[in-house]
Amino acid sequence: MITTKSEREIELMREAGRISNLALKTVGDNIRPGISTITLDKIAEKVIRDNGGIPSFKDYNGYPATICASINHVLVHGIPNKTVLKNGDIISIDVGASYKGYHGDNAWTFVVGEVPINVQKLLDVTRDSLFVGLQQAKPGNHLSDISHAIGEYVYEHGFTIPFDYTGHGIGIHLHEDPTIPNQGEAGHGPLLKEGMTLAIEPMVHAGKPFTKVLSDNWTVITKDRSLCAHYEHTVLITKDGYEILTKI
Ligand code: MF3
Ligand code: CO
Fold this sequence. Notes:
Blueprint: H1 7-30, H2 37-50, E1 54-55, E2 67-71, E3 74-76, E4 90-99, E5 102-111, H3 117-134, H4 143-156, E6 167-169, E7 176-180, E8 197-200, E9 203-205, E10 211-213, E11 220-222, E12 228-230, E13 233-237, E14 242-244
Antiparallel strand pairs: 1-4, 2-4, 3-11, 4-5, 6-7, 6-8, 8-13, 9-12, 10-11, 13-14
Helix pairs in contact: 1-2, 3-4
């Protein structure tokens, strides 16, 4: 069942979104060669707790950290550890926070130092696909209109999209209905309604669309070890479009 949120719930989700985005941006400001992903995790956790929030991912299905830190060919769910970033890496940071029981969830791919222009293009296309998808986020459209717009944009630019990872509804749970694929035919699935809250999160591969989960049962990599990127915002469907909740 897809829920719509009351004005009171939306206020709490705005605050959860603000804290989630503050944590993401603060981590982004600290990304540089030589810093470890566990240090980035501690930075995010402090921001969230100092703002009265709770890390959404910690202990979710046993996940051990505040952020997912996914470097280069790691697509999602990289567990923070002592690995140190180096010039030329790309790193996707995914972070969620709850506030008074309501969740926010957002992700961004950052460059470490300098990267070649083809790598920057992967990041640009993935980020832009999120906003191209969001242009379809309005009452009366079908859910899959968002999926279709993301998919078309990504494939047009020569990249691919894994089938097995998707966006999701969000609210009192980190993951709620509906599941939101990043590709597919337009005009299917539920109609979007004012008050729905959705986490839209395109994940894009430079190579083939297949993934593999490592033996820690979390880390998802591209099977061909090609580079990949991930951007995510939590949004509210409004009267005539959408509002980004994960913003400071
Ligand atoms: N943003 C991711 C998602 O929506 C993060 C989940 S990581 C987990 O699925 F640890 F919480 F599972
Ligand atoms: Co998410």
